[in-house]
Amino acid sequence: MGSPVVLGIESSCDETGAGLVRDGRLLGQALASSMAEHTRFGGVVPEIAARAHVHALNPVVRGALDEAGLRAADIGAVAVTCGPGLSGALQVGLAGAKSLAYALGVPLYGVHHLAGHVAADTLAHGPLPDPCVVLIVSGGHTSLLLVRDLARDRIVHLGDTLDDAAGECFDKVARVFGLPYPGGPAIDRTARAGDPCAVPFPRPLTTGPPAMRFAFSFSGLKTAAARWAERHRAAGRPLPVADGAAALQEAVADVLTRKAVAACTEHGVRTLVVVGGVAANSRVRALAQQRCAAAGLTLRVPPPRLCTDNGAMIAAVGDLLVRSGAAPAPLDVSVDPSAPL
Ligand code: KG4
Ligand code: ZN
Fold first, then answer.
1. Where along this sequence does the record place binding of substrate (predicted)?
2. Model pTM score
3. Whose C-alpha lies nearest to ligand 1, atom 2?
4. Which residue among 94, 95, 116, 138 is the one 20 to 30 A from 255 at the CA level?
5. Would you give per-residue pLDDT tens digits along the chain (341 residues)?
């Protein structure tokens, strides 16, 4: 008998995702987003996100099954994000996953959201090489990891952000620049018409003590961008938003890729994997490609649809857990909104 079809459910923030994976292969996925409902508040409102998951959960599971040409009875295991994320939002996905696992009589697996981001790449490019360096860049996290075996938690943290995440920096600066939420994609689009050298924004923690060589800091960059915008407004000059967006994006991409390549070189690792919402950024992708080629490294970045939150990545971890013989979660498992990786 082959491996079971694993249903993955993601609901940690404003995306409700379902995906179906078997033996490392993506069979179908569906996604619903409450993003539009948060736009006028300039950021995700937890209560609105949780309520939206209640509406979207069953339709996205149905959508993933339809895309795969499968029925609910074909599901052999259910994997669900238990954290980190918004507590109420996570509760909705977990309650739905427990009900499905119980009703279908199949095992339930609790998944760490960041492990999901890493596993997303396996759906595009196959099993991860052991070892590889993984750069996770999302709205809530920026981390450099040395990964040996994701399913068995053989992961070493090389560095994390000391303050804001890279995506958070994009989102907050976009707001100051008057761009819509979510800020990352808006900065990416706006930057196309700008000059990345127009503003000499800082490259935080690229010089300094060796202990900080794989750490990140984006709050100073955020403040520098806000001050730049204030100076224009105070002088009554129109804000050259495209130049600001291009220069900010260049600074973020420069810091991320420089440190990620240095981590590979220092640890003698041949493959860099870049995942998470910010891995969808066009400049991060291009600069990572350029610097990996120059350093003789293989770069793996999932297609943009698998970079941002989705259910397929959670199914991918569930599939790895099932195949590695991991123990399922009890049906009274709880969410862990600040789960460490
Ligand atoms: O991984 P993700 O979907 O959710 C979290 O786990 O946080 O990442 C969302 C983050 C947001 O900060 C969003 O602005 C950013 O990813 N993002 C981007 C792009 N697409 C999404 N940032 C820059 N350029 C993009 N194209
Ligand atoms: Zn995420």
1. 136-140, 171, 184, 188, 281
2. 0.96
3. 277
4. 116
5. 689 999 999 999 999 999 999 999 999 999 999 999 998 888 899 999 999 999 999 999 999 999 999 999 999 999 999 999 999 999 999 999 999 999 999 999 999 999 999 999 999 999 999 999 999 999 999 999 999 999 888 999 999 999 999 999 999 999 999 999 889 999 999 999 999 999 999 999 999 899 999 999 999 999 999 999 999 999 999 999 999 999 999 999 999 999 999 999 999 999 999 999 999 999 999 999 999 999 999 999 999 999 999 999 999 999 999 999 999 999 999 999 998 88
CB of 78 closer than 8 Å to CB of 65: no
Q: Show the DSSP H helices in the chain as ranges.
A: 35-38, 46-68, 87-104, 113-125, 166-176, 183-191, 219-234, 241-267, 282-295, 304-307, 312-324
Task: Confirm whether 5-118+307-324 and 129-304 share one CATH topology.
Answer: yes
Tokens representing 10 are: 């993601």
338 DSSP 8-state letter: T
> Does 109 contact ligand 1 (Cβ within 6 A)?
no
- Which residues on adjacent β-strands are paired with residue 10? 17
CATH code assigned to 129-304: 3.30.420.40
Distance 114 CA to ligand 2 centre (A): 7
DSSP string, 137-199: E-SS-EEEEEEEETTTTEEEEEEEBSS--HHHHHHHHHHHTTPPSSHHHHHHHHHTTS-TTSS
Q: How far is the CA of 116 from the centre of ligand 2 (A)?
A: 8
Architecture of domain 5-118+307-324: 2-Layer Sandwich (3.30)
Q: Please name which of 264, 276, 273 lies closest in space to residue 310, comparing C-alpha atoms.
A: 276
Q: Which two tokens stand for residue 217?
A: 């800091």
Phi (first) and psi of residue 30, to 5 degrees? -150, 150
83 lines ligand 1 (CB under 6 A): no
Cα–Cα distance, 238 to 38 (Å, whole number): 28
User: What is the dihedral sign for C-alpha 193, 198, 199, 202?
Assistant: positive
How far is ligand 1, taken at its centre, from the CA of residue 273, in Å? 16
